[in-house]
Amino acid sequence: MRILVVCGAGASSTFVAQRVQRAAHDRGLRYSASAGTVRSLPNDLFETDIVLVGPHLGSELEWIRQDAATRGVRVVLLPEDVFTDLTGTRTLALVDEATSARESADTV
What we know:
By secondary structure, the protein is an alpha/beta fold.
């Protein structure tokens, strides 16, 4: 699973990506997490399975979803308190939830 965390400039997304990467590693999951920006998103989508969007980018969520959908990439808007998730476990749970929802929809 390739996870991309997107924010405006890439700074806050770096912290979230590092934390979710560590949480996945601690669970024995072979996930990779990286940080990106809205500007780099069109290129980054080619190597991404799921995009975690910073809460401050809610106004751009619709076009991000549209762009990601053309490549079969899932998109999750992160909650306002995502930066307080110091272990990355709550953020990883959002990835798990989105993955499970997608797999359930694919089997229906």
